[in-house]
Amino acid sequence: MGDNCNNGEIINGECVCKITSDGKITSYYPELGCMPLCDDVNTDEGVNCCNPDSYKKDDENAKKCKTPSQVQMAQKTANLNLLGDQLKVLQDPKIMNYFAEEIKKTQEAKCDYSDIQRDFQNQLNIYKDATSSDDYAETQNNIINMQSLINTYENLYNKQFNRIKELSNTRKDQNNELKKKVDNNKKIINTNKRKVVYESRELEWINTYKYILLVVFYGLLVAYLVFGNFFSSGLYKNRFILVTLIILSVFPIINIYVIRLIYFIIKKAKYFLNNEAPKNVYTDL
């Protein structure tokens, strides 16, 4: 771990990243500390944000966005390159001849040349160990994990896409049904409006007929009283005839109230019989 732990907290010697004040998730980069992923707001890569594949870019700021594993991999690659260069130097015919001459001289001088052989063998072993280290296995493991992650995201995307498509079709069908209901309601409303117009006309005609009939009725009544034998024959002295004439005279005016009273009495009687009158509630058990 590097010394830079901006936007994070060092716990047990490790930099633990935190979420920024605006809700961005951060990742640790040794040179920069904890940085969010570059997006429409954070665009200055290597300064206020980083991308996972920044190590592939040549930009100096982008090269700062290396994860710890990428830094470690780069160091191992550099060591491998260095050992490779050393091996190339050691495999140079001039160098090999030089070592052969030195060994021959050492043999002739009856000196111990085991240190030279041991150093050469150690260099070869280091290169062998470096080339056969876990770098390749780690890279393959990362590739397998990334492929598995890609497959998981692909399956999740397909499931969500199918679910969204199904939900969209359902909402379209519901929308079409609602449109049909609205159209039907509009038709019913228009029909009811026409009915109201016709019924209003009929009511106006009925009221007109009622007034005409009242005028005719009372006109005939007055004509009978004036030109008839009601007064000449003294029928007004008969109480029965007089009461009957009075009732018939006022009946056209009070008939509406009489009808309403009759309907009120019938309604009250039905309510009493259905709700308040005694009855056997166990007949249906």
Task: Characterize the structure shown.
- By secondary structure, the chain is mainly alpha-helical.
- Among the domains are: 1-66, no CATH class; 67-133; 237-273.
- It has 6 helices and 4 strands.
- The chain has helices at 60-63, 68-90, 93-108, 114-131, 135-227, 239-276, and strands at residues 8-11, 14-17, 26-29, 33-36.
- The strands form 2 sheets. Strands 1-2 form a two-stranded antiparallel ribbon. It has a two-stranded antiparallel ribbon with strand order 3-4.
- Helix 2 (68-90) packs across helix 4 (114-131).
- The longest helix has 93 residues, at 135-227.
What topology does this entry show?
Elements: E1 8-11, E2 14-17, E3 26-29, E4 33-36, H1 60-63, H2 68-90, H3 93-108, H4 114-131, H5 135-227, H6 239-276
Helix pairs in contact: 2-4
